[in-house]
Structures are given as C-alpha cells and as structure tokens.
Amino acid sequence: MNGLFLFLWNPLVWILVFLGYILMFALASVIAPKVAGRLSGKFSLYTSMIILFLMIVFIFTATLLGLTYLLMIGLGAEPSLQNAGVVLSGFVVPLMIFVILMNLITYIISPYLINLMYRARHDPRIQEIVDRVASRVGLSKPPKTVVVEGPPNAFAYGNFVTGRYVAVTSEMLNMTSDDELEAVIGHELGHHIHKDNMIMLFLGILPAVIYYLGINLINISLYRMGLSNRRQNNGGIILLAAGFIAVMISFLLQILVLAFSRLREYYADTVGVRAAGKDAMQRALAKIHIYYNRNYRDRIEIANSKLKTLFIYALTDAVAEPYYRVSREDIERIMRMPVSALEEIFATHPPMPKRLRFIENLSWL
User: Fold this and answer.
1) Is the pLDDT of residue 223 over 60?
2) CB atoms inside a 10 Å sphere around CB 19
3) What are phi and psi of 316, to 5 degrees?
C-alpha cells in the first residue's frame, strides 16, 4: 500500500494526470457536443451524454482521492487507509454534507421563489395545451402550468415537494403560433421526462464540493504557514498547492457540467420535435433567437438572470437579422451562421445555429 502512495507522489504521475485532465476536458467540451450536434443520431447523443457523465464523476472521484492523500501529507500523517478514513470522515465528508444540504435546500425552495419573483399565475387555457402535449409525448402526469411576465421564454422547474411546473412568458404566447407553442412546451416537458433538474442538481454539486475543499485547504495552509515550525511550513506549502489545484479542477468540472447541460438541451429538443414536428420546433427557436438579437435590453436581462440554465433560450453570440417573422430561408440562414467555440464552452445552452442544425438532421424520430 505504501508503494502505491509513493507511486502516486511521483511528479511524472501527476504530470500525466494533468495531461489526462486536459485531454478529457477537450473531449468533453469540444468533441462530445460536436458528435451530438452534427451527427444528431440517437446513439451518438446518448453515447455522448453517458461518456460525459462518467467522465465528470471519474474526475470528481479521482480528485477527491488525490486531495485526501495530499491532506494526509500536508498534515504530517502517514499515508494509509486508516488515516485516509480519518481525513474523509473528519474533514471531507462533513464538507460534502454541508454543500449537499445547501444545494438541496435551494432546490426545494426555489420553485416558491420563482413563482413569487415572476408573479406566476395559472392559466387554464395553457394548461389544456400542456395536457394535450404531455399526452402526445407520453407523460402521464402533466406538470402544473403557469404564465409569467417577461420577454419570450419558457422553462421547466419544480421538485418532489412542490410538484413540477412549466412556465411560459406572456410574450412567448403572443409571439408563437399554436404549433410553435406546442413545440416549446414539448421541449420543457422533455426536461421533466428526462429528470434534468435532478441530474443537473447532482452534477452541479460535484464542482462545488471540490471548490470548497480547495478553499478550505488554502485557508488551512495559510494558517500552518504562519507558524514557525519548518515541518508545518512544508506541510502548509503542500496544502496550498493542493488547494489551488482543487480550485482549478473545480472550474474544469464546471465547464464539463456546462457541456453536459448543452447536451441535455439537444435531448429536450427531440421531445419538442416529437410534440409538434421539426418545422414548428425550428420556427419557434428561430423566432426566439431573432427576438433577442433585436432587443438588446432583454438579452441583458436573460444573460444576467440566475435562472438562465432553466430557460429554453440562453445567450451565446450568433447574430441574426432583426425581424420577427421567420421563413424557411430565415431558418437556413441562421443554421449557416458561424458560432464561437470559446463562447459555447461557457454557455448552458447550445448556440441556436447548432440547435437548428441538430433538429434538421434528426432522422430517428
């Protein structure tokens, strides 16, 4: 066992691990979304999501074990399974429980806050549409439907305490035709069918745990480095390095989680297509895209919203022509628009041109 710890402490091993992180980051943030967006086959989309999910969990687990080892070294403890258990139970696990509880509390109360902030109101007419679309896509228990004020958008939210909701803004109702509205609602129902809120809650906790572990390691290291004992200073340097590494890895994990979120948007789009057809889904997305490129103030409102991960539309720069009505030529023009790979990496939603191309190439529905 000690040989294993010495192997892990070898600088060459850590260099290889770092290069491995870079490779996995490239695969997850660039290749996986391209496989889903360009090939748009059912198998490739599922495979991309599975690979990316496992990659995130693997990086989290490996980082957690590595930080546990470095914490033992930094505290001057002999690396062993017994000491690892002490570190995990006395430091790592309590911090994980704290982060999980904070996220869980936020998850439970957020629907109440959303309904209050957006002045949500029930609309029986829209509920009938949601019920009809839910039946069409195989959702036996339709979510509650509310109308909220604001620029054109829609989002799915809720949990096991509050129940599930689909919110549609009044401007979205004014802007879309019946089949376009059904496509938008189908997309949001897709998030409920795929349990995206729960999945993203779980994945969102992982980088948060690593981040707070890193911050705590930095604080511990600064305390120990303030002491006069040389051995404690050496341990403090190790903990400081471990803390900075943890913070950097947490950022990488967050980028991978964003990549996974973009794949889930493609996945939800397939339900919108099932609900109302390719053309209706494309027209609805194109209208929303054009609206926000014409209305800068509303773009800023969405970009700054804490709830933008829930929206059917979240901003990545791909400029469209400033008009509302869309034709087939308009959709094709948007599909041909270039997108910024750098901006996409930090976005919760795929760029609209890629979403439209994804829907265009769907062949398995």
Assistant:
1) yes
2) 10
3) -135, 140
* SS3 track for 77-123: CCCCHHHHHHHHHHHHHHHHHHHHHHHHHHHHHHHHHHHHHCCCEEC
Q: Is the pLDDT of residue 318 over 80?
A: no
Q: Count Cα neighbours of 125 within 13 Å in the Cβ-side half-sphere.
A: 6
**Structure token digits, residue 19:** 């290069």
Check if the beta carbon of residue 143 is closer than 8 Å to that of residue 174. Answer: no
Q: What is the pLDDT of residues 270-317, one digit of tens each?
A: 999 999 999 999 999 999 888 887 765 545 455 555 454 544 544 443
Annotate 263-308 with DSSP letters as a single string. Answer: HHHHHHHHHHHHHH-HHHHHHHHHHHHHHHHH-HHHHHHHHH-TTG
The per-residue pLDDT for range 340-355, each reduced to its tens digit, is 776 677 777 888 888 9
Helix, coil or strand: residue 164: strand
**How far lies 6's CA from each of 3, 68, 208, in Å?**
5, 14, 29
- The pTM score is 0.80
Give the per-residue pLDDT at 308: 46
User: 113-195+277-360 in CATH: which number?
Assistant: 3.30.2010.10
Residue of 188, 301, 332, 360 marked active site: 188
Alpha-carbon Rg for the chain in angstroms: 23
- Name residue, tokens 């339709």: 142
Torsion from C-alpha of 44, 327, 261, 183, nearest 10 degrees? -90
> 């009505």: which residue's tokens?
325
Report the residue count for the chain: 365
Given pLDDT bands bounded at 50, 70 and 90, which one contains residue 46? Answer: confident
User: Which residues make beta-bridge pairs with 165?
Assistant: 144, 157
> What phi, psi does 321 have (nearest 5°)?
-70, 145
- Residue spans of the domains in the chain: they are 2-107+197-263, 113-195+277-360
CB 258 within 8 A of CB 194: no
Q: Is 343 a catalytic residue?
A: no
